[in-house]
């Protein structure tokens, strides 16, 4: 994988994740706002459950995006250190095709499966 291409791909992946994080943060606030408006007695009715479930779902997506951004940061550091494109587990060179699809992945296909 060409270093310039790798930087480009990581930059794009980071922008996309950050944008999604902003969108999720906005909808999370909407949900919190909506649940604050509802009466406390309604906490256990179906609508309250739906709000709680949606909130948990959005929180999980936010956590996943934060992890993704950390992964991208680590990949960028490994690019600077000259170790980018090698599996952190077994040291195998990760194929370009995989890096093009998942530029921040620290693992080869086999290690990602295991
Ligand atoms: Zn591996």
From TrEMBL:
Which InterPro entries does the entry link to?
A: Znf_DskA_TraR
List keywords of the entry alphabetically.
Metal-binding, Zinc, Zinc-finger
dksA C4-type zinc finger locations on the chain:
87-111
Write one Pfam family the protein is assigned to.
zf-dskA_traR
The answer, when asked if Metal-binding is one of the entry's keywords, is yes
Answer yes or no on keyword Nucleus: no
Q: Where is the Zinc finger DksA/TraR C4-type domain?
A: 82-113
Protein name listed in UniProt:
TraR/DksA C4-type zinc finger protein
Q: Which organism is it from?
A: Dermacoccus profundi
């Amino acid at each position: 994988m060409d270093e310039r291409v790798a930087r480009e791909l990581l930059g794009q992946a980071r922008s996309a994740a950050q944008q999604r994080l902003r969108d999720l943060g906005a909808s999370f606030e909407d949900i919190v706002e909506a649940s604050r408006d509802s009466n406390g007695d309604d906490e256990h009715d179906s609508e309250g459950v739906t709000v709680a479930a949606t909130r948990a779902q959005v929180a999980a997506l936010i956590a996943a995006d934060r992890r993704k951004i950390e992964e991208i940061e680590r990949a960028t550091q490994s690019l600077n250190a000259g170790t980018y494109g090698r599996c952190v587990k077994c040291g195998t060179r990760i194929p370009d095709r995989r890096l093009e699809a998942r530029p921040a992945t620290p693992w080869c296909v086999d290690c990602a499966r295991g």
